């Protein structure tokens, strides 16, 4: 397993380099001009100086190499310096700067990340914790009232788009009942019990919307996988040997059923860091999803490139984690 993991990590390096170049090239060909909103009265020589300051006057391959060096060398060294105080090389090294704010892109991402993790991360965690028992019970008691209600709610939660669910919850719980706020206050700081209650209240609606969607999606996979394994020969053999039904269900059937579900859960983790773009827009959550939309609208290519590449790294990483978990859940799978 260790050899396989190292081999996959080494193989991921050229893969990520190819992905980064494709992202960089596609965004460079996009019809966006960072100087397009400037007045036409600006002289051409001033525009040329501004293009040189942004670095877009150089060939594409030069811009790409500089971006790679800044992302893989300068930014990690800067993070190391901020965390530990250890300075390696030039402390004023060139970083990836946003075209619109002229702030370091990584600093903007770190600033928005906690909001996304609080809302999207908690929603995904709650979705997984609810989906597994719901899927197990629905499969074990197939066609029961619990299964029918769970199937109906799952189909509605997965089919109805999150922007519609969010608006409905705002109308019911915010506009009509006035129980929860409809707008997320990013500037709220938790200092005491009252501010903690306010934080929970403003998180409730967006977390509920995303939890319903995640639970609906994952529970259907768990139920289908459980049904495939409940009628296998090894289940009948275990029951014939007198193994307790609880052990058969939770140890034998559930463990084998989680193998395909691991892919769904692992590949869903990167969406936590990418943010729930639509839900963040509805509830005005100042997270990474909202940051990406703002960067695209403003034509801020360095910010879009960095965010998109980070999402690609997370997808490759969690693909590897899913493959490793296969070998842990199923002893028959051996990579070495």
UniProtKB/TrEMBL annotation:
CDD domains: TM_PBP2. The keyword Glycoprotein does not apply. It comes from the Bacteria. It is a multi-pass membrane protein. InterPro entries: BPD_transp_1_N (IPR045621), MetI-like (IPR000515), MetI-like_sf (IPR035906). Belongs to the binding-protein-dependent transport system permease family. PANTHER family: DIPEPTIDE TRANSPORT SYSTEM PERMEASE PROTEIN DPPB-RELATED. This is Peptide/nickel transport system permease protein. It comes from Rhizobium paknamense.
